[in-house]
């Protein structure tokens, strides 16, 4: 029952979270800072009440280590959301973030001196090729749309888009580095996921003062958006504030679902569920929001997800479950 409930939370929470984020970004592409701030504030308040017991519970991991991890987490979150302000379409944003396996493997080899099997390297090649195809196709779309205007506008739009790609790449590498740092902390001090979740969202809050002007400006924009009546409640609020509220709530549901899933299931199951969730979010974004997606985008997307499943050995596990172990293994038994 716990597993089914966790899977439902992941699909409902994470998929709907992407929908509300796209509804926000579609009208205000530069609203990434206010969205990130609202998410951090909500999870920090919830953690302060239920995890830190109003500050009475001491952290199991030294605060100095949390400061390092939080700095990385803050930049990753802010940069990922702010990249949407640079002509990055939501489908490309989702596909690019699926390339975390590449960054994890590269930094794992460099920092942790890890070695991987041939199938792992093959999967990374597939993911890299898939992301490369999708990025090139998106670049052509940006150029084509920019060509409709003057040459100066076209060059500016393309450079603007390249900055967004650079931001996503930076966030990808920084996220992988944070994961390695977190892994070493858990090995040393034990796994404290709830505690890490709280401090990762609480400690960076003063950092949003750097973006206070942008956050305040978008709060004004949100307040000036068209009013809507909230179903069941009957309360009338600006529609953008409703979208933001739902984005924050669904983000929390998504995080809790993944957390429960990691305690209930093996890592392969978690990866499979998260990968399928990303694929469904992508399909919904393309169909419902009519985001441009060519045949080559579909090819690239398929290659990315096949590479992801190959890396996590989900495909071989499914093969064994359906057809049984290979002949050599049967003879050994």
Order of adjacent strands in the largest pleated sheet: 1-2
Total strands: the figure is 2
Outline, from the CA principal axes? Answer: globular
What's the story with the biggest beta sheet? 2 strands, antiparallel
Percent range for β-strand residues: under 5%
Structural class computed from helices and strand pairing: mainly alpha
Q: Approximately how much helix is present in the residues?
A: over 70%
Helix and strand run: HHHHHHHHHEEHHHHH
Summarize model confidence as the mean pLDDT.
85
> Roughly how many Å is the radius of gyration?
21 Å
Any low-confidence stretches, pLDDT <50, length ≥5? 329-333
What does this structure look like?
The structure is a single chain. With 333 residues, this protein is mainly α. 77% of the residues lie in helices and 2% in strands. It has 14 helices and 2 strands, in the order αααααααααββααααα. It has a two-stranded antiparallel sheet. A hairpin with a 6-residue loop joins strand 1 (227-229) and strand 2 (236-238). Helix 3 (63-82) packs antiparallel against helix 7, helix 3 packs across helix 8 (193-202) and helix 6 (118-146) packs antiparallel against helix 12 (295-311). It is globular, with a radius of gyration of 21 Å. The two termini are 34 Å apart.
